[in-house]
Amino acid sequence: MLEFDRDRTALVIVDMQNDFVREGAAMEVPDARKTIPAIQNLIEMARQCGMPVIYTKFVAGPKRTFLWEWSPQIPDDNCCIRGFKREYNDAEGELECTDIIGELYPERQDYVFEKYNYSAFRNSPLKDILLGHHCDALIVTGTVTHLCVCDTVHDAAQEHFKVLVASDGVSSYSDLQQEASLESFHTKYGVVETSGEIIKRFSGE
């Protein structure tokens, strides 16, 4: 059974940005909005425990890359293009499409970095941030479960980090994708718990 030390664990929030979460977004994941309260609770817990809070933002382009083959919304709607702004049905005014949603917005001490891949580990500072804090484990939340969350969890395991996945803090486009991903995580890659169970684990209650 994996043991998790609160002083050696970080919270990672994958791609909870406007172009995935907001209503009417170019690559909207409707269920992502349902995860906001769970992620808010985990952020509060992480801050109380002194855990690093790390945000990723998926960025495309500015010129065509291989990943565009699987996401026609990128060229058609300027989805996740750095610096591009658009209006959303559930927000006022124009928002930068790659920015973190307001409900979960980072604080000054948090880490925020852009990534051009699905995995938060690939060509990114994530591993160095974790090692800099002497972390050997991470709590993973965010979207999309079967893509960016999945690749992040897999790479974390390959890099020998222990992983906790918040089952109510991740979201996919379908129940099938969500359930299959969580089952895969549970089987080989880490521990899957609700946000409440994770908070209880670290609060010592």
Description:
Helix 2 packs parallel to helix 7. The protein has one domain: Isochorismatase-like (Rossmann fold), CATH 3.40.50.850. Strands 5-2-1-6-7-8 form a six-stranded parallel sheet, with helices on both faces. The protein has seven helices and eight strands. The chain has helices spanning 18-21, 36-49, 73-77, 126-132, 145-158, 175-189, 195-203, and strands at residues 9-14, 53-58, 85-87, 94-96, 111-115, 137-143, 162-171, 191-193.
SSE topology sketch:
Blueprint: E1 9-14, H1 18-21, H2 36-49, E2 53-58, H3 73-77, E3 85-87, E4 94-96, E5 111-115, H4 126-132, E6 137-143, H5 145-158, E7 162-171, H6 175-189, E8 191-193, H7 195-203
Parallel strand pairs: 1-2, 1-6, 2-5, 6-7, 7-8
Antiparallel strand pairs: 3-4
Brief synopsis:
By secondary structure, the protein is of the alpha/beta class. The protein has helices at residues 18-21, 36-49, 73-77, 126-132, 145-158, 175-189, 195-203; strands at 9-14, 53-58, 85-87, 94-96, 111-115, 137-143, 162-171, 191-193.
Report the structural category. Answer: alpha/beta
CATH superfamily: Isochorismatase-like
Distance between the termini: 19 Å
In total, the number of domains comes to 1
Number of helices: 7
Order of helices and strands: EHHEHEEEHEHEHEH
Quote the CATH topology. Answer: Rossmann fold
User: What is the averaged pLDDT score?
Assistant: 95
What is the CATH C-level name? Alpha Beta
Number of strands: 8
The amount of beta strand, in percent, is: 15-25%
Shape: globular
Radius of gyration computed on alpha carbons: 16 Å
Estimate the helix proportion, in percent.
25-40%
What spatial order of strands do you see in the largest sheet? 5-2-1-6-7-8
